[in-house]
Design goal:
The chain is an all-alpha fold and 164 residues long. It has one domain. The protein has 5 helices and 2 strands. The protein has a two-stranded antiparallel ribbon with strand order 1-2. Strand 1 and strand 2 form a beta hairpin. Helix 2 runs parallel beside helix 5. The two termini are 19 Å apart.
Length: 164
């Protein structure tokens, strides 16, 4: 599992870098759009569409990194009072459901990207498929990170956080 841990730690870090960069991009882009609209009365037409792509990127990359860091919403207060065997079974179920979610996210997003590939975002002059790229990548990352968590559970190890 060492190679998977190293790979996933690096992928998780990069997912967060992309999420942070996209968040900074949204901030700068919206500020630019507001200044151009209200100060110069010349609103750039691409701001809204680009901001939407960046919002999707923030959500998908941060969510996938959250899966690796076990930062997703959980019912820990209920699970910790259960016997260890039941905790293990619930952990396996959560891991399998996370993998299923990642597969569905990947497959559905890829299908949508392929369906709209020939359509263009008019204000950006790029393919509509770009909107779905973060979801496709996040689906793969969620599957990889969930597999790592399941392997760690079955081997009695902990997943090493990416940020320490």
């Amino acid at each position: 599992m060492n190679w998977l841990t190293r790979l996933n730690a690096r992928l998780s870090r990069w997912a967060m870098y992309v999420a942070v960069a996209a968040l900074l991009g949204i901030t700068a882009l919206v500020l630019w759009g507001v200044v151009m609209r209200y100060v110069f009365h010349n609103a750039p037409p691409y701001v809204e569409q680009l901001a939407l792509i960046l919002v999707i990127s923030v959500a998908m990359f941060a969510a996938s990194a959250g899966v690796r860091e076990a930062g997703h919403i959980g019912m820990d207060s209920l699970v910790v009072i259960l016997p260890k065997k039941v905790q293990f079974i619930i952990g396996v179920i959560v891991g399998l459901l996370s993998i299923a979610f990642g597969v569905v996210l990947f497959a559905g997003s890829l299908q949508m990207a392929l369906a709209v590939y020939s359509n263009m975002i008019p204000t950006l002059d790029i393919s509509e498929a770009v909107r779905y790229a973060p979801c496709v990548i996040a689906g793969v990352l969620i599957v990889l990170f969930s597999i790592e968590h399941l392997i760690a559970m079955f081997t009695g190890k902990e997943v090493e956080p990416s940020w320490y």
